[in-house]
Amino acid sequence: MTTPMSIPFATLEKITNGFSNDLIIGRGGYGNVYKAVYKGEVIAVKLLHDDLVQLLDDRQFKNELFNLLRVEHPNIVCLRGYCYETRYKIVKHNGETVFGKHIHRVLCFEYLEGGSLDNHLHAPSLPPNWTTRYNTIKGICEGLNFLHGCQPPILHLDLKPANILVDSSMVPKLADFGLSKLFHGSHTHVTKQIIGTQKYMPPEFIKDGKISVKNDVFSLGIVIIEIMAGPMGYSEFSEMGSGAQFVKEVLTNWSTIIKATSEYPAEELHQVNLCIDIAMLCVDSERVNRPTIAGILDALNRTKTHMPSSTKKTHIPWGQLEDVPLCSTIGPKSTSKRSNPVPTKENKRLKMMTTEVDNIANKHQQFNCMPGDSSKTIVQQVPDRETSSDVEPTLIIGRDEEKHKILSILSESNAEEMTILPIYGIGGIGKTTLAQLVFNDIQFRDYYRVWVYVSQKFDLKKIGNFIISQLTKETSDIDDQQTLHNRLRQLFAGKSILIVLDDLWEEKQHELEKLKAMLRLGIGNKVVIVTTRDEAIARKINRTVMPYKLEILTDDMCWSIIKQKSFFEDRCDKEQLGQIGMDIAIKCGGVALAAQSLGYMLREMESDQWESVRDSYIWNLSTMEDPSLRNHEVLLSLLLSYSHMHEFLQLCFSYCAFFPKGQNIVKYDLIHQWIALGFTGPSGIFDSIQLCEKYITRLLGMSFLQYSKTRSSDERQDKDVKMFVMHDLVHDLARAILADKVNKEGDAVGSSCHYALLTDCSKPLQLSVSSTEYSRFNFFLSLFKKKSSHENIKALRFLNCGKVLLRGDAFSPAKFLLVLDLSECFIQKLSLDSIGQLRHLRYLCAPRVNDYTIPNCITKLSELTYLNLRGSCRISALPESIGDMKSLMHLDLSGCCDIIELPVSFAKLKQLVHLDLSHCHVSVSEDFGGFTKLQYLNLSVLFSSSKGHRRGLLEVIGNLKKLRYLNLSRCMEDIATSENQIGSLLDSISTLSNLEHLDLSENKQLSSIPESMGNLRKLHTLDLLGCYQLEKLPDSMINMVSLKVLNVGNLVTLDESVLSLLNIASLPHFVVHASSGKCSSNITRLQATNPDRLIIDRLENVKSAEEAHNIKLIEKQKIETLQFEWTVAARRFVDDKEVLEKLVPPSSVDSLCIIGYRSVSIPDWLLGISQYLPNLAIISLVNFSKCKNLPPLGQLPNLQWLTLSSMDGLEEWNTTYTTGEQGRNELLFPKLERLNIHDCAKLRIEPCLPRALYLRIRDSNNVLSSLNTREQAESTLPSDIAHCDNMISACGKSSSYSGASSSSPITDLFVEESKLPLHQWRLLHQLPALRGLRIKHCSDLTTSLAVIQKLSSLQNLSLELNDHELPSWLIQLTDLQELKLMHCNSITSLPQWFGELASLKRIEIKYCKGISSLPESIQQLTKLEFLSIHGCPVLEEWCESEENKMKLTHIKVEIAGRDSVGFEDSKVQIVKPMPAQMVRQSAFATTERR
């Protein structure tokens, strides 16, 4: 480097014409820049502004000069000379003439013709091609990397487009080092002077003056955004609030430009993806999350530049999955567009695809496994899944005709007791989808429906238990075959049942006969649909009905799928690709799965790559000798897609075969195992979790993974946990790739096995091999001197061993294990001899350990990064040396409730990223403040406590800056003892800028949330459910731009003013607000939600039916409980019917409530409710003031609870319908348990009440007056009747209706507030088996002999009498066993004849304050066992006397709410009142149920 020269100031004045304004080429805050020529070279002369204080400018000048003297790099502006001269001038100062010192500071640089980058961003001079911008970004990064790499590092501190100069070729060079600093070491520094351009400053610098290398990284991120999105790009990003939306728009814009202008679109689109990802990481508000410039440059250097697809497979940079270069190692590109030539000399290499598959599979053996980062997300094992019966019709192509044919076949065979229809066809063709369509069809609306995923492992007992579980909605695990058959026979009796047996593989005729025999149990109508790939199985399962063969899709249908998945219509070259795409569609063999996979792969391929896919000789593999590949174009298409994967993605995908076919795969379970096996590789930008997230996105796009709809049965698991499944054919491909690297379930472990699936954990590992095979195996090892197969095993999982005691040597011989999953084993203890030998282990899932301790040897597993001991409720302590496990990142101790204190060494676990202490009582100490890498922390408990176990969190929570998930459900009382402490805790939480999910639910002490909570800009979920004291949300929540879900439940005290301002869906209780001055409401915020429970309140504020339709409620298949509510008297913008018509519920809803509906008629989906909501069990229709008709509720086969309330316009309810069979009328409601009819003054029910197990009628006089036959009266079970004079008296009239009568007698009756005399309750004549009667606030209890005779068998009686004495007719109830008296204020004493109720066993007296004593005759009640007194102070005093105690010696007495009265001999027990909290919970549960 030529040493810059000192240039006299006079010379500089001369070459700039006295610093003429005409030569100015740039102006800045610190000086102007002039163009000049010095010694024949054009230079840029920077004259700093005058500053007589000589502080700021001197420092800036010296910083820039000294730094420039140290650096020489192509991307840093070159210093040519400088000037630092002092001159004295005569000046006026305070009225006097003095000599003033004037310092001239000048820097001279090489002249760059392009000027500043800032000018190009604001003008069209920057070419619209991506290559120029990418090279600019990379050049800036290289210059900045050089500065940071100096010793000591140089920080620019004012990086922005105005300080980046470009030459005529747009090569960028960093300039203007006026603010730069030299840093000795890597510590963060603090300055009190905040200067520079605020837009490019990181938040920690603006707020606290903190300086580090991450300041420049933040500025770089903004510069990259402006290069990619224009000078207003960062402002648009900030205003948009959603980083994901901004990224999507940037990618979309560049995709359009690149596809129209680039010769290398796939390559450049990957560079765009990488650069925008880097920018997002750089502008992270938390500086520790920003990457280093070295890491950024490393990622950019790994990105290929202009390397066309050829015969060489290209290496893809870490984290780049979008670009999958055509894998030419499969063979040369054909020169023909139509033929698929395969060179003869390569036939052996291509045969049975062994070369291609084995080359990749061998990477599992050769790969050097390195431990990776951990994740913040819960990883827990879930049980096997069944295929779901749910289906999305919008995603189905070309199967309507087949569906109607099958329905026709089943309809014609419906007269038989059991119809079995097999559906067969090749894998991936859509058999399951077709069965789903039939399963959900209206034709089977009145059937009980059962869906069983059979799979290759045929287990008759498992099938039977699945059927029982779905019919009873309770888990069934019956081992005994006879008991299983008895239960099925009982459940099948009298029912019409549709059963789908999906994916049947069993070929043995005798096993199939056993299956059919089990299905024939019980008398009833059964329709059975069986799906299978094998035509022979289809014919064996039913020899009387012709199996239905499902034909393949047409080529046009496959082409439609490919076009959809490849975004074909958005391509500029679609006309050129039309025929090529159709040729590829033809090769899909009519299989949708093949078309989906290929379509996604083609999405970002160039036209020549489309041709390569079409012409690939992989398609010729179907003509090879391997019979498993014949006619399986789908496997070939999947193999072709696989060959285009990045090598690490190939490793990750093939490992998925380690999960049994049909099993749910928990997302982060899979990710942690990938990391433990080293399948991700290093990256300077993305950590291992981020890389794995990209892998999963890619596999989902290719349909190699699919989202599972089955929920986890583990209540402690995250609500938003994601689970995947693999299609059978995809699983087959993964297994083929792994080949002998994974054994079949329970089979012998071969010499090449890396991933072992075992089904018996009670035997030593080597005993799983037969003796003959084991001998041959040992002989083979001796010949080739190979190591034991056990030493090759890297991952081991036991399946279905929940009742089998784990034996240590079942896994200990596999000394090089990296992944060990014992989640399906019965673990008595983890022994020293077994677990201690696995020194290489990185992933251990060992939940529900039944021992009291964990062996100390586990701490010798120095490489362990993942440890799951969830549910080990007997463990009382962790090993004292647990701190030696310094690699541990993920620790799950949830449910380990006996662990109270953690070892001192626990504080050494500095690498912890995930810590789950939920549902246990572990104390939180100040040591937790050292877990600075923690991203996930769960401290929730099942029951609130004030013992102070969590109190230490108050002091340390502010240190956990990387936390993304924090769960403090029900533990606020254990952390903070006062409102001030709660406020301090929440203020500390508000400093956790990375927090995304915060759960504060069920903290009843929480009354307010501080304004500081608005600082959580990344928070997307806030759970405040059950915080009943909370009155107001902070106004600052409008700043929480990422918040998507706010769960507040039904907080009646909550001020909802803030909710209306938030751009979120407050769940589960969403309140619709009409936007003033706009033509829409906020209901559209529900579009992105899918909760399990949803209340949509104030629907009168919806401004258009269209916006209700746009939330796509019908697609939200997680919703089970749904409520629609209008304010009764409020003004509407849209008619209620128009709104409700667009809010079609999803079929998953089992509880529906509609309140305040004001239209006269109801929408079509309610009229066809059984088709839309076949699973509905509870429905409430409230305040339908004008509605004159009810939906056909009787057609709901699963309805159990029905409430009709305030139906003012409803006059008639016909409870029958015509079946079409001889016009016969039948009663419906086969499962109805409870019917409530309230305040329906005009309602008449014809011809009879629906049969129910419980009936409550209030203030609906016409209801029972319209019931007029004995049969109708017998059709109703336990009744609850209020305000029912006409109903009770009308039951004796005759009727010509001959309907079905009840098979069960009425046992209980509740009559409330009736003015009708008791002797006119004709309903009692229809209740010969009445066991219980409750009378409340009825004005006339005079009776007759006939009524007394009907009550003679009464066993239970409850009276709430107000102003009445105890009726004398009680003496005639000789069978009465239980009597309850409540609020009988007029009764002062019990009569002597009370002793004649000889059958009495139990008496309860509550709030009868007038009763002062019990009669002497109570001693005659020899059968009396129990006496309860509550809220009767005088009677309680009477019981305290010694004299009266003797009268009660034979009775167990309970007096609630009083201290002990010394009834040692009389069995007196003092019962404390129920806590108010429990009362509220109980009342809430009752309200919810009703």
UniProtKB/TrEMBL annotation:
Q: Which residues bind ATP?
A: 46
How does this protein sit in the membrane? Single-pass membrane protein
Q: Which organism is it from?
A: Triticum turgidum subsp. durum
Entry's Gene Ontology BP terms: defense response
GO CC terms on record? plasma membrane
Sorted alphabetically, the keyword list is: ATP-binding, Kinase, Leucine-rich repeat, Membrane, Nucleotide-binding, Plant defense, Repeat, Transferase, Transmembrane, Transmembrane helix
Q: Which GO terms describe its molecular function?
A: ADP binding; ATP binding; protein kinase activity
Q: Give the protein name, as stated in the record.
A: Tsn1
Q: Which residues form the Protein kinase domain?
A: 19-309
Q: Name the Gene3D superfamilies for this protein.
A: Helical domain of apoptotic protease-activating factors, P-loop containing nucleotide triphosphate hydrolases, Phosphorylase Kinase, domain 1, Ribonuclease Inhibitor, Transferase(Phosphotransferase) domain 1, Winged helix-like DNA-binding domain superfamily/Winged helix DNA-binding domain
Q: Where in the cell is it found?
A: Cell membrane
Question: Gene for this protein?
Answer: Tsn1
Main location group? membrane
